[in-house]
Design brief:
This protein has one domain. By secondary structure, the chain is an alpha+beta fold. Helix content is 51%, strand content 14%. The strands form two sheets. A three-stranded antiparallel sheet has the order 1-2-3.
Length: 131
């Protein structure tokens, strides 16, 4: 049968300096397979609901985008130096994600997407060289 190969998730994090706010940074993790599937499911729901001009479906699509963003922020942002009135944001809380300046929030969302795409496209298998 051969030797067993380690296939469990091992987090890999990377720090990104933000261009939209001087001195701001986020440390991002990649999603494990289960979280990645969950996020993909949210995005598919958005795609299916977003094609219709109907106001009820459009509202549903906006809600799905918001759920997708909250999910990815809460799972992927490991650390950061962002806050309000001297208090660090907790991105596991929806109100803190919602409170972000939209330009900063969009930059972080784009970094999250690029970080996962880069890891997927590289073909890099993170456990292959670890003992």
């Amino acid at each position: 049968m051969g030797d067993l190969v380690e296939a469990s998730f091992k987090p890999r994090d990377e720090r990104f300096d933000l261009e939209s706010i001087k001195g701001g940074w986020v440390e991002l993790a990649r999603l494990n397979h289960g979280d990645s599937n969950e996020l993909a499911g949210l995005r598919v729901a958005f795609t299916l609901k977003g094609d219709d001009e109907d106001s009820e479906r459009s509202a549903s699509a906006r809600t799905t985008i918001k759920l997708s963003r909250h999910y990815s922020f809460s799972r992927m942002i490991l650390d950061h130096n962002l806050g309000k009135k001297g208090k660090k944001y907790d991105f596991k809380k929806r109100r803190d994600v919602d409170d972000l300046d939209p330009v900063i929030g969009d930059e972080i969302a784009n970094l999250i997407d690029k970080h996962n795409e880069t890891l997927e496209a590289s073909g890099d298998i993170p456990n292959s060289n670890e003992g």
